[in-house]
Amino acid sequence: MVEKSNTGIDIILTFGTKLIFLGGSFIISVLLARLLGPDGKGVVTALFVVPNVMISLADLGVRQASAYFIGRNIYSVQDVLSSSLVLWIITSFISTIVVLSYYLMPFTSEYNHWLILIGLMYVPTKILVFYFNGIIQGQQKIGNINIKVLLSFITNLLGVLLLVWILDFGVYGAATVTFLVAFSSLIYFLTVIRKTARIEFKYIKPIPKEMFKKGIAFALALFILQLNYKIDIVILENMVSASEVGIYSVGAHLAELIWQLPAAISVVLFARSANSKTDGEASLRSARLLRLSLVSLLFVVMIFGLASNFFVTFIYGIEYQQSAQVINLLLPGVLMIVISKILHPSLAARGYPLYGLAVFIAPLMINVVLNLILIPLYSVNGAAIASTISYTIGGLTYGIVYAKKEHMKLRDLLIVKKEDFILIINILKKMK
């Protein structure tokens, strides 16, 4: 049975969880940067780029399809879970083979057998976490998703303190922690799901086929989006030193922390949109959330940009000073990509994921071409410029397409209104 929840309360609680997570992620980022140095940070970052891109494709949209089928009461939780597990076996096997093939290529010679093993174990674990997330999202158990986020942070922090700092295992410890974060999430989701369904591998015709048909569009859209976010690291890995990759990753990580709050909104938004009675209800909710997000994040971006040079040098050390330039170059694009990060889950949950696929193919191609041109000229700064141009084009294009489909004006998506603040005040009053 799908639990009913209040969107405003869910968003506030999820925001609070994300704020804790963001603060923790920042602390962990500083610890890893200081303990590993630019070289080690670059190796660990690059190690998980291809696995994460592959995971987004191997997801097959099962997570979103599960939320859709359960949220609309089309199939039972048990049947969707059993079918998801069957698909997981297939996707995990194929994905692991692809990632192994990548690790065995000549330009990845810095990865020894232990690092490769960690990367390979990470793939099926993370895929299953995604599949379980869809089951829980479809039941609108947003609180459990928030608990998972907090658990991931605690596991990450304790793991870094023990394996990287105290035991001084370096990149091996950092890579192991990344796997343990995924594994702890899997164990928690497993305990949650077992309260409402049995863990049973069973092919229930025609659910796997229907999940694939519904989900493949989600998967392709998500794959293009993720590839657009990560292609810079893949290209940098082959064109600059590990130290420069580490410098870029610190700047990119700090800049991208900004869009974690809209990502928190999208979790709630997807679950609520999948259960919305009308498309109009979902689109109005999405537009309001986007307007509020943009106006608040604009101030964050401005302050962050002004303080980045002092902030990075003081916190991370002089060896990461160039990361401040990366941050400032990425910030405009990060702000603009928030448009698609909020609007895409709303459309995808209502069965229109192909809009994201269609919109972001061109920005991805632009990103690749600009990276190949600008990295030889400006090193990591070139990658940041390429990403910002791509993000800006993608975000604005998605906003235009969304407005046209929902018969709205673009300014109604982007410009905050008086009633938006009134809504926030009313929600805060209800929390008292």
UniProtKB/TrEMBL annotation:
Q: Which CDD domains does this one have?
A: MATE_Wzx_like
Domain of life where this protein originates? Bacteria
Protein's membrane topology: Multi-pass membrane protein
| Residue ranges crossing the lipid bilayer per the database entry | 12-36, 42-62, 83-105, 111-133, 145-166, 172-190, 211-227, 247-271, 292-318, 324-343, 355-378, 384-403
Gene Ontology CC terms, in alphabetical order: plasma membrane
Query: A single Pfam family, by name?
Result: Polysacc_synt
InterPro entries linked: Poly_Biosynth_Transport, Polysacc_synth
- Record's keyword annotation contains Plastid: no
* UniProt keyword Transmembrane helix present: yes
Q: Where in the cell is it found?
A: Cell membrane
Q: Which UniProt keywords apply?
A: Cell membrane, Membrane, Transmembrane, Transmembrane helix
Return the protein name. Answer: Membrane protein involved in the export of O-antigen and teichoic acid
Q: Specify the species.
A: Pelagirhabdus alkalitolerans
